[in-house]
Specification:
Layout lengths: L1 E5 L11 H14 L6 E6 L14 E5 L6 H10 L7 E4 L12 E5 L3 H4 L6 H17 L2 E4 L2 H11 L6 E3 L16 H5 L7 E5 L8 H11 L7 E5 L7 H9 L6 E5 L3 H10 L2 E4 L8 H8 L4 E4 L4 H5 L3 E4 L4 H13 L1 H15 L4 H13 L1 H5 L1
Parallel strand pairs: 1-2, 1-4, 2-3, 4-5, 5-6, 6-7, 8-9, 8-11, 9-10, 11-12, 12-13
Length: 371
């Protein structure tokens, strides 16, 4: 059988989130050897150097188009193809009007829960194109049980329509290159700062972290708070909160950081804090665990599901609960060490090879299901 895949999310310069997911799956599919199974990866641009090399069972096909690629140009091309047995859409949007069975991955439904965080044109696509993809799909992959529950509640589907396949994780996601340049740049002392990594937007709940940090500094005045991530919708309210609490000298906004810099920040942070109200999976907590950084995160959405027993959890609506957990970490060295140990164990439960194998099983069996 020949499996068609939308590979555009992987074919980019910087890989985060869904682009990491797509690239990792393609890497594993490119290594897959089974007689009678081949892959055709459809792209709108020529494959970049990061993409797996072609071979007899793994080939690229470029269909040029700047807009409406998955809605018009790819479907029109596939209309005349009889050699594609199943199509895989790894990021919400399935091509229109396909005669082949489709399997689609839904990473989260944040656009349903927090619609104001999206531009109108993006929100329109997410609402309408995702709905079409979900209703068209033979099978839907959810990256967590939380995401599956959200899908079932939003689209009124049956349990058997959605299969949970967890994202993978590998230590290669945390670069092995260690340099103290980023610590020098921001005047950071090892183990004397709290770290947050993620987009600066309302559902990430960063103001609660800032308010808790303000109280935390009353006992730990040498600490700083480092916020890594791009500016999202309403990020100005986060800056305003820092100014309101007179924390300009103690809260550092780094923007996007390289993998090497991020590795250093994780490894030298006192702890990593993710206060989000909603996450479809929460890959940063695995990144922190892999780097030996204790994790304090909110007891919300998929985070307890991914973090298991390897995190300290708090109520995202209660800054005092977060403060209590931070203070507990500073006073309980045994707990601190236990979180590091358990975190490194937890990370091993997530692998891209397992993710690829389970995804491939669904794809290979799709034609049987469709009969």
């Amino acid at each position: 059988m020949n499996i068609g895949i939308d590979g555009n999310e992987a074919n980019v310069e910087k890989h985060v989130g869904v682009s990491v997911y797509t690239l990792e799956l393609l890497k594993h599919f490119a290594k897959f050897k089974q007689e009678g199974v081949t892959f055709t990866i459809f792209l709108r641009n020529e494959p970049k150097i990061c993409m797996p090399k072609e071979h007899d069972g793994f080939t690229y096909e470029v269909i040029p188009a700047k807009v409406l690629w998955s809605q018009i140009f790819l479907p029109f091309h596939l209309l005349f193809r009889s050699d594609i047995d199943v199509f895989f859409a790894p990021a919400h949007y399935a091509p229109r009007f396909l005669k082949q069975p489709v399997i689609v991955t839904i990473h989260d439904l944040s656009y349903v829960k927090y619609p104001k965080e999206f531009l109108k044109k993006d929100l329109y696509k997410l609402n309408n194109w995702t709905k079409y993809s979900v209703m068209k799909a033979l099978k839907i992959i959810a990256v967590s049980k939380t995401t599956k529950k959200d899908i079932l509640n939003t689209f009124q589907l049956s349990e058997e329509d959605v299969t949970v396949v967890y994202n993978g994780f590998s230590r290669t996601n945390i670069s092995s290159n260690i340099s103290n340049d980023v610590l020098i740049q921001y005047k950071l002392n090892p183990k004397k700062y709290l770290l947050y990594v993620g987009t600066l937007q309302p559902r990430k709940n960063v103001p609660t972290l800032i308010e808790a940090f303000k109280e935390f500094r009353k006992q730990q005045s040498e600490f700083k708070l480092v916020l890594v991530g791009k500016k999202g919708w309403l990020f100005d309210k986060i800056y305003a909160k820092v100014k309101e609490l007179n924390l300009e000298e103690h809260v550092i906004f780094t923007g996007f950081e390289t993998d090497e810099a991020l590795t250093t920040l994780y490894k030298n942070a006192f702890c990593f804090v993710l206060p989000s109200f909603y996450e479809g999976f929460g890959i940063p907590i695995l990144e922190a665990m892999s780097a030996g950084c204790p994790v304090v995160t909110s007891h919300a959405s998929s985070l307890p599901e991914i973090g298991g027993e390897a995190c300290l959890y708090f109520d995202p609506n209660d800054k005092n609960d977060l403060l209590e957990k931070l203070e507990k970490l500073t006073s309980d060295s045994k707990l601190y060490s236990t979180l590091i140990t358990e975190g490194k164990k937890r990370v091993k439960e997530f692998s891209w090879s397992k993710c690829a194998e389970e995804t491939l099983s669904l794809l290979v069996n799709a034609t049987k299901i469709d009969q």
